[in-house]
Amino acid sequence: MPAPLLFQEVFGWSAVRSGAVVLFVFVGNIGVKPATTYLINRFGFRPLLSVSTLGLAVTTAACVLFTQGTPVAVIAVVAVLSGVARSVGLSGYRDSFAVHRASGLC
C-alpha cells in the first residue's frame, strides 16, 4: 500500500495530494467487493487466497520502486491493485474462517 508519509516527506507532496492518491487503495477495496463472493464460489478459497497474497506482495514490492519521477497514474494503478488484493484476501480469510467454524473445525 502506498504510504502517505512517503509522498509527503520524500516526494514533497501536499497532504491533500498524498491523501487523494492513497484513496485509490479504497477504490480497489470497495470496487471488488461485489465480485468477491462470486470469485470465492468460482475459484475456491485456497487459489483465491494464494493469488491475492501474491498480488499484495507484488504491489508492495512495486511501492518500493516508486520515485519522485513515477507518474501519478502508475501509483494510482498500483494502489487500486493493492486494494483489490487486500479486499479479496480479507474476504477469503473471513469466509474460510466462517466455513471452518460452522463445520466445527475451529
- Percent range for helical residues? over 70%
Number of helices: 4
SSE order, one letter for each helix or strand? HHHH
Uncertain stretches of 5 or more adjacent residues: none
E-strand count:
0
Average pLDDT reading: 88
- Sheet bearing the most strands, described? none
Derived structural class: mainly alpha
Radius of gyration computed on alpha carbons: 16 Å
Shape: elongated
What is the terminal-to-terminal distance?
31 Å
Question: What labels describe this entry?
Answer:
single chain; 106 residues; mainly alpha; elongated
Q: What is this entry, summarized?
A:
The chain has helices at 4-10, 15-43, 45-64, 72-102. By secondary structure, the protein is mostly helical. The longest helix is centred in the C-terminal third of the chain and has 31 residues, at 72-102.
